[in-house]
Amino acid sequence: MPLRDHFHPPLSRSSSYQEVHGQWPAVLVQDLGRLLPANYVAGPHVHVGTQIEVDVGTFERESTLSDSGVANGGLTTQVYAPPRPSLEIQTALGDFDEYEVRVYDVQRERRLVAAIELISPGNKDRPETRAQFIAKCASLLRSGVCVVLVDIVTSKDFNLYSELLSLIGEHDPTLSAPPSATYAVSCRWHPRGAEFWLEAWNQTLRPHQSLPILPLWLSETLAISLDLESSYEQTCRDLRIA
Asked: What is the pLDDT of residues 46-65, one digit of tens each?
């Protein structure tokens, strides 16, 4: 069965993309459980970013210090008065969606070796959230983690894989101009002798077409097949999405 467009009518009227993004990681974990060697485990991780207003109350306590700064025989305490800040603006620290599967090597103290990231509209809607997500992916790659990005979001015209490459001053010749907003790519950064190389397997995703099989690297020499089509179809069956 082909990829659906979960972000526009008619499908968006009868089902929610959050249901697909919430269920898909669990199905991926089930599929990986049949493929991973005995010393590897996979687990889902879902975190929906929200902006929360924090009501901070200021409580005053009557001082037990005398005017001389001495209380009950204590020593004088010098109070520090900080200068005015160089920046003072009302803002919020960003929080972003995480729909992912993490794969660990239990023989190396549960070391994270691979991460499958299902990109949501919240990862693409603002420059700051895109920058945060890209920084996270770059950090994982630098740590030797294989990163798979799966983007089926048709409502936001951004390609985070392309922006990740721009961050390091590179370009993938398989990308169109402008790059497709929907795609799946597997990336790894690994040593070749004294040098490090970035390798990527990029596939454009299109509605009404099947999803690809990508390599999921567990070590420098070991990869398993990640069948996105199989897990996506099982997700749609579980949610009764035609």
From this structure: 988 654 333 333 333 444 44
